[in-house]
Amino acid sequence: MKIERVSSAVSLKRTLDQGTEEQRKDVLAILNDVANDGDQAIIRYTEKFDRVLLEDLKVTKEEIATAYSSLTDEIIEIIKEAAANIEDYHSRQVRQSWMTMQENGTMLGQKITPLDAVGVYVPGGKAAYPSSVLMNVIPAKVAGVKRIVMVSPPSQDGSLPPGVLVAANELGVQEIYKVGGAQAIGALAYGTDTIKPVDKIVGPGNIYVALAKREVFGSVDIDMIAGPSEIVVLADETGRANEIAADLLSQAEHDERASSILVTTSMELAEAVSIEVEKQLSDLPRKEIAEASIRDFGAIYVTNGMDEAIETVNDLAAEHLEIMTADPMATMSKIRHAGAIFLGRFSSEPIGDYFAGPNHVLPTNGTARFSSPLSVDDFVKKSSIISYSEQAIKENGAKIAAFARLEGLDAHARAIEERLK
Question: Between 412 and 125, where is the model more confident?
Fold first, then answer.
């Protein structure tokens, strides 16, 4: 890995992939076809892009039973335990409706209501992602969403990965459809004869999925437009080169555009990590992908001290931040921007991906400056409650009418004054 002084760290910042104009036109055409032709459009595009002609879009009970028989009891138990950890964590995020009463009889409050229906997109292609099922479905379930719909692109034999089906079934997902890409987003947003529309779409996907989510936003809500995965490791001289290198490569193997960065106060550690990355790359199964990621988006930045290192990390606002310093908790107190923070050498990033409990759907591309991980809050809406008493309107009516006239809205003022007569 290339080693640089921190002054060039700003070069790391990347803009979100907006896609090409041709890709956007393709997505718009697909969405329009799905809106007009429904199931038939989905079947056509599934045959075109996934090379499979589907007779039924919905996953059957028989397919789910086959998925269970394809996995060992040990793996099924691991999925169940991970789900329990994730549910326990998210159950602590639940908010309650509230009301407050003032002396003049005014009652104000907030009503929390779960969304009626949510669509979960689970990517396919190069790998299977049962963890994506858990992380997107569980907070919706905890929030109280009654209808959760899952879509995922099928393999050429028309099936979905066993781990994905088992994870969804363990969480009680009743609607699972073998459809992916922009056509799946269109189906969730506009509805078809088979797939009824939802209120919000969550889950990662390729550039076509991301562009489709952007286009349907407004008809439905979406979680975020996620970019390639990122990890930043903040370390002092106590960091261990072999562990840091392994963690950097854990993100680099995601895809060629993933970003893996070490920010350290120690040149000795920087050099050791650089050597260790090359060593561990040599026998990595996804070597070509990780190698391209490290070459194009990987870096090691050496700072003049911990304060400069922390400012660099805050500037990067990474999706995943690992802190490997002598006192990780003290260092963490100075971090302002990060999607998820992992403290100490035993808190490797994959722990958060699969098992610990916090959500692994995180802000990327520096959006951790203003965004948060996927949570229960993403699956509820809030309604304000206002109940004014007669005493309250007598006390404040004239002020409200005056404010309305300040904005030139005389009918607003009159609506109040009618009640003061």
Answer: 412
